[in-house]
Amino acid sequence: xxxxxxxxxxxxxxxxxxxxxxxxxxxxxxxxxxxxxxxxxxxxxxxxxxxxxxxxxxxxxxxxxxxxxxxxxxxxxxxxxxxxxxxxxxxxxxxxxxxxxxxxxxxxxxxxxxxxxxxxxxxxxxxxxxxxxxxxxxxxxxxxxxxxxxxxxxxxxxxxxxxxxxxxxxxxx
Length: 173
Prior knowledge:
Blueprint: E1 2-10, E2 17-23, E3 45-46, H1 49-58, E4 64-70, H2 77-93, E5 98-102, H3 107-118, H4 120-128, E6 131-134, E7 155-158, H5 159-165, E8 170-172
Parallel strand pairs: 2-4, 4-5, 5-6
Antiparallel strand pairs: 1-2, 1-3, 6-7, 7-8
Helix pairs in contact: 2-4, 3-4
């Protein structure tokens, strides 16, 4: 796996002060994407054990509220495989930090109904993620007034609650 960037002290990609990891590789290719350079799976740097340590260390200050995964596309299968060791470590060391993930895939139709049945990594990833913002960016639905989303078709989903109920449970309407 490769990654495009790590932003520490990020306040734009989830509530509070967070570390955000922008993974490389995305097959969605949304028109108007803000991070088109990260579509290439080979863009950026190799994601290594040192990268994981860097991210873990960045989460240590008490003012940090969580980790955000975005991209590129965190739910591309090769990225899931790369992200699992990080997610395991974050949950082990910082069980109370929130983990958010932005994905162009639909939570219910693509991730739960398809990926969970195809790849074991998906089910495990969902155990660690608190909130997923799902749906492709749609330029004609762009809305700068939305909180932590780019277009009005995207949903902010509580993962654990959704999995337990069998229905999508939204954090924000």
